[in-house]
Design goal:
The complex is a heterodimer.
Chain A lengths: L1 H14 L5 H7 L5 H9 L5 H7 L5 H9 L5 H6 L6 H8 L6 H8 L4 H8 L6 H7 L5 H9 L14 H9 L5 H7 L5 H8 L6 H7 L5 H9 L5 H7 L5 H8 L6 H8 L4 H9 L6 H8 L4 H9 L7 H5 L5 H8 L6 H7 L5 H8 L6 H7 L5 H10 L3 H7 L8
Chain B lengths: L2 H11 L12 H14 L8 E5 L5 E7 L8 H10 L1 E5 L32 H4 L3 E4 L14 E3 L8 H9 L11 E6 L6 H4 L2 H13 L5 E4 L13 E4 L4 H9 L1 E6 L8 H8 L4 E4 L14 E4 L5 H10 L4 H8 L2 H14 L10 E2 L5
Parallel strand pairs in B: 2-3, 3-4, 4-5, 6-7, 6-9, 7-8, 9-10, 10-11
Antiparallel strand pairs in B: 1-2, 1-12
Helix pairs in contact in B: 5-8, 9-11
Chain lengths: 396, 355
């Protein structure tokens, strides 16, 4: 029991990017594979530690090394012959592996290796074109999903899953997307509506779809034409008004219209969308009778003091939670939340990057484990991290 | 307060704030006996599983969960001649042939009735259907009795908690991720998991709310949001997945077409609320103010996540009141009795549900 408690805190400290190298070195020798895995995934892990953990007995730890963005390309490549297929395939899919190795894997007889190569974002276009017609269905599908695949290879077919990939790929040509936007399957049309490369013309077409969810995807797309959003503001369907209200490029005039909507879902969407929150409108939303609306505003990264401080004193814990997690919250408001009755509010506050040191130290003494673990995950003070792990059973 | 006393508070705390396990039910009492009995069964077609009682005895019913390959047709015919068959919506697209295997064909137009032209022989052999769909008539033969029962109902809570938390399921676990989104790494994963929406949701949660997101079985895929707070892992073992769920605060389920989302009840068993797409085929029945929330799309997923993250949920207690292996087996027994099963049948467990 004691070991498990210690491991939980140790894992949190090992995952903290501010964990000092010496402590990470120690945690990298922990008995618990979850703790070593957290150290191996930590971007602050020293190269020597990553090298050692690259030889760890547990494949989840070696996998974490491969996934660490700071792992040296040579170290990653050295694990290419790892005995664990999970680790090997993760390496093949790693954009930092040398192209010459990728060329070998594309010729592999193992379809899993070809599939992993097809998923590599750095895979050269000629190889992806080849993989887009691979005899293995899954390799083909993954190649069709790869944004690096040349548009010429992104064609519709009789395969529903392949069409889904092509409809979702941002490099798919407008002509192909328009065809797929008429597919009998909702999933394919939804994928086209969620495609970041969808043009305003295509979104106009999808906004006239029979399925409300396809229309909603088009309306919430940042490139949806303004006149389509304006039409949606007069829709009887709350889902569609809410989707339009959440559009990141909503014009101010429509923000005002949606901000006064009778449906709380629509007002909530206005409160949460990041692009346009007018001070007057935000003030009205901050006093909205629906806690969900106030919560959405409190979580909005454009919401600032003094409104945010006001929301941090909201009677609803959910609103205070959102305010405590907003990086714009200033220390005076943070002080008011340190003794919040909700442990969830205190826990999210403990993870705030700009939390004053004295407040974080106070939260380290919190009676709730999640709050203390949050301190362990986010503290930037090495002494506090050391202290959290002091007096625990010795590491073997 | 010193570090020592700080640590000791948690060591002493034990299970005070974590719900304790209920008294062992029939499954726990008879687990070994049932497993032994099942181990003695002859090899059956993959798509067919017998239904056993609390002592592992054959109940005379069998469950059909997918298409029967030609190579196993004779074995299936034997089972069908000796057992009463109940179909389940457990495998993606089944029993509608429209997506066939892995969505490789467009045999049946969406919305078109599942009539005799498309009825597979094994589908026709089922006298009733168990499902988790809100609109079962859109997926199942129209002329057969239907009842609500989905494989995730049978979640083995104790086994999930042991996999998630190790041998001491009451000890606290530090939450490393705010949101976990687990996919199946199969050819159907994108369809079942509605990846085109899932990807947009992950982007919103990570970019706009700054949440730490873990994506399972999306490793090596090229279209995963490339953000420092989005971590991707490949397909993991069941125990590792449970460990990841336990270390997360919310499970995101953008699924639309998944007929049997086990991750829903497994998350609840691990004490993690679920955020579920409102259009989910099956799994909607596990969403309750005590267990999580619905969302409609990328435009409101952030609000749903905030509700789940800030709310006080009692997922385990809710699950144990409504589902779990013993409760689901008792309910299936009642459904089979209603179909004319033995009056004394009080416990019915499809053998396919063993992990």
């Amino acid at each position: 029991m004691i070991d498990d408690d210690r491991a939980a805190l140790a894992e949190a400290v090992a995952a903290n990017p501010a964990c000092p190298p010496e402590l990470l070195e120690r945690l990298g020798q922990d008995d618990d594979a979850w703790v070593r895995g957290a150290a191996a995934a930590n971007p602050s892990a020293p190269p020597e530690l990553l090298e050692r953990l690259g030889e760890d007995d547990d494949d989840s730890v070696r996998l974490a090394v491969v996934g660490n963005v700071m792992a040296a390309p040579l170290l990653v490549a050295s694990l290419a012959d790892d005995e664990s297929p999970i680790v090997r395939l993760a390496i093949i899919g790693n954009p930092r592996v040398p192209t010459r190795l990728l060329r070998e894997w594309v010729r592999s007889e193992d379809p899993d290796e070809r599939r992993a190569a097809a998923g590599n974002r750095a895979c050269p276009a000629d190889l992806l074109r080849q993989l887009a017609s691979d005899p293995d269905r899954r390799a083909r599908q993954v190649a069709l999903a790869n944004p690096a695949t040349p548009p010429a290879a992104l064609r519709p077919s009789r395969s529903l899953t392949c069409n889904l990939m092509v409809a979702a790929n941002p490099r798919t040509s407008e002509a192909v997307l328009r065809g797929l936007a008429r597919d009998p399957y909702v999933d394919v049309r939804l994928a086209a509506g969620n495609n970041s490369g969808a043009s305003p013309t295509l979104l106009r077409q999808l906004a006239a779809d029979d399925d409300d969810y396809v229309v909603a995807a088009a309306l919430s797309h940042p490139r949806c034409p303004i006149e389509v959003l304006a039409t949606a503001s007069r829709s009887d369907v709350v889902l569609l008004r809410a989707a339009a209200a959440a559009n990141a490029h909503l014009p101010i005039a429509l923000s005002i219209v949606f901000g006064a909507d009778t449906a709380p879902e629509v007002r909530r969407a206005v409160a949460s969308q990041t692009a346009t929150v007018l001070p007057a409108l935000a003030g009205r939303l901050a006093a909205d009778a629906e806690p969900d609306v106030r919560q959405a505003l409190a979580a909005n990264r454009r919401c600032r003091e003094p409104l945010l401080g006001h929301l941090a004193r909201d009677p609803e814990a959910g609103v205070r939670f959102a305010a405590a997690g907003n990086p714009n919250l200033l220390p005076p408001a943070m002080r008011g939340l340190v003794r919040d009755p909700s442990a969830r509010v205190r826990a999210v506050l403990a993870r705030a990057p700009h939390l004053p040191s004295d407040l974080r130290q106070g939260l380290a003494d919190d009676p709730d484990f999640d709050v203390v673990a949050s301190v362990a995950q986010a503290a930037v003070e090495p002494w506090l991290l050391e202290e959290l792990l002091e007096d625990v059973p010795p590491l073997s | 307060m010193t570090a020592s006393s700080r640590q000791n508070r948690f060591w002493r705390r034990g299970s005070a704030e974590v719900p304790t396990e209920p008294p062992p039910g029939l499954w726990a009492q008879n687990r070994e006996r049932i497993l032994t009995a099942v181990a003695g069964l002859p090899r059956l077609p993959w798509a067919v599983r017998l239904v056993v009682d609390e002592e592992g005895r054959d109940t005379g019913f069998a469950i059909l969960r997918g298409r029967v390959p030609e190579a196993e047709r004779a074995a299936f015919d034997f089972v069908a001649s000796t057992h009463r068959l109940v179909g389940t919506m457990e495998c993606w697209g089944f029993p509608r042939p429209e997506y066939s295997w892995a969505g490789e064909s467009y045999a049946l137009t969406p919305g078109e009735a599942l009539d005799d032209r498309y009825l597979l022989p094994e589908v026709a052999a089922c006298e009733a259907w168990a499902h988790g769909a809100r609109e079962p008539e859109a997926f199942l033969p129209l002329d057969r009795p239907r009842f609500l029962m989905s494989p995730p109902d049978f979640v083995d809570v104790a086994a999930v908690r042991e996999a998630a938390f190790g041998p001491w399921p009451d000890t606290p676990v530090a939450k490393r991720w705010d949101v976990i989104c687990a996919y199946s790494d199969t050819r159907d994963g994108e369809l079942e998991g509605n990846w085109s929406l899932g990807r947009r949701c992950v982007d919103v949660l990570a970019r706009e709310l700054g949440l730490r997101v873990l994506l399972l079985s999306r490793s090596g895929l090229p279209d995963v949001p490339d953000l420092p707070n989005v971590e991707v892992r490949p397909r993991l073992s069941h125990d590792e997945i449970m460990g990841c769920i336990a270390r997360s605060r919310v499970t995101l389920m953008p699924h639309r077409m998944d007929p049997s989302p086990r991750i829903a009840t497994e998350s609840l068993a691990a004490g993690v609320p679920i955020l579920v797409h409102s259009q989910i085929l099956s799994g909607w029945q596990y969403v309750d103010p005590e267990t999580g929330a619905f969302f409609e799309g990328a435009f409101d997923v952030a609000s749903g996540a905030l509700r789940c993250l800030s709310g006080e949920h009692r997922t385990l207690q809710w699950l144990e009141r409504s589902y779990g292996r013993d409760r689901a087996a008792e309910k299936l027994a009642a459904d089979l009795r209603a179909l004319g099963g033995a009056d004394h049948l009080r416990y019915a467990l499809p053998t396919s549900l063993f992990r």
